[in-house]
Amino acid sequence: MYKYFFYSFLFLALSSSTLTAQDVEYQYSNQTYVDHLQTIVFGPTGYPHLFPVITLDGDETLSLSFDDMESDVRNYTYTVIHCDRDWQRSGLAPLEYINGFEEENIPTFNFSSRTLQNYINYSLTFPNRNMSVTKSGNYLLVVFEDEDEKRAVISRRFVVADRQVGVSAEFVRPMEVSKIHTHQEVDFVVNFQRLSVRNAMAEMSASVLQNQRWDNAITGIKPKFLSADQAIFDYQGEIVFPGGSEFRLIDLRSLRIPHRDIEYLDVNTDNQMEAELLPVINRSKAPHLSFIDFNGRFLIENLDMAIADLQSEYVYTLITFKADEPLFNDHVYLFGAVTEWQLKEEYRFRYNPAISAYVGRFPFKQGYYNYYLATAPSNSDPKQPLVPSIIETEGSHADTENDYHVLVYYRPFGTRYDQVVGFLQINSQQTN
Prior knowledge:
It contains four helices and 30 strands. The protein is mostly beta strands. It folds into three domains: 24-161, Sandwich (Immunoglobulin-like), CATH 2.60.40; 166-244 and 400-427, Immunoglobulin-like (Sandwich), CATH 2.60.40; 248-377, no CATH class. Strands 1, 3, 5, 7, 11 and 12 form a six-stranded mixed sheet that branches. Strands 13, 14, 17, 18 and 19 form a five-stranded antiparallel sheet that branches. The longest helix is centred in the N-terminal third of the chain and has 22 residues, at 2-23. The chain is globular.
């Protein structure tokens, strides 16, 4: 009897803790919910700029790193949440997809060293001996600040793939004449010979991402045709993305030998490292210029010091965008992976008529950054997310180099979750 009451009490305590974690508010997307956390890096261990995907029962791991700009050491915990193909919580309970603890502390933190800006760097690797997953699918990693009151501070999407199908893809010319020179279209084929698919039209779907972006991903794509053991996703004019232009760059990897685009670099009166870049111009009417870029991503790297995560400065960087007159109906933003592919108020430019230019000053940890200048209507509904456009500032070209990712989902009739059974990365300049 005593054992019965003891285990009942333990179960209720654990259930109460779980419910508390689930009741904390967060979004099922890549978000940072507090201002004092900066430079959130999440990706495959050793290759943080790549798409966050691991193989079910494989040896790959994902690494998360972030800086806390406040001086106190905090207790950060994390969990993972299984999601459906539409990035909502799936019908699975944590015990059905988590092997180990449902919630765990972030184990590692270190103080910055020899920097003007002090910060604490936290990091974790997943899966680990305390927590792993047993199902493929979409997942959300959520980090909580577990002090006086539990609150979500970071959420990041990742994918666990059980590669049971083969995927091949090719790029074709868009069907619409108006998009031939500005857009890129992807067709792909899924070979499901090893998978017992009864009704591919109903049980299979796919998502296609450009440059790891979920904000403009094309999702819920059903097969167009079936042929033997193949599902053919050949939609004329449907799986089409603007080609964009090659991304602009900010190279802050060395403060001893600054990049040629850095016009000014010094410590300001607030004891902050400050940089000013050479002015940039509008590229919407310019011919396409091809060069190697990072497709919108960023990488923390320090050519001057040995430990980039802990010995890199935060450089307050002034960017000047020349414009004879302001865009009267639009705001201008810095846009890329560093802004979580969102248009954020803290990354908005302001127009200065005295110099006929938009100006913005933003903190970047030493590294290499890609970005666009994007616009959104100034009268947008504040309750709705801003929709970025690069047409007025960057232009769009069909021959721009971009990365694409194809995710194949499978949900057999009668099951309760979406499996990820196929994954492919392909570049617009090559085919697999």
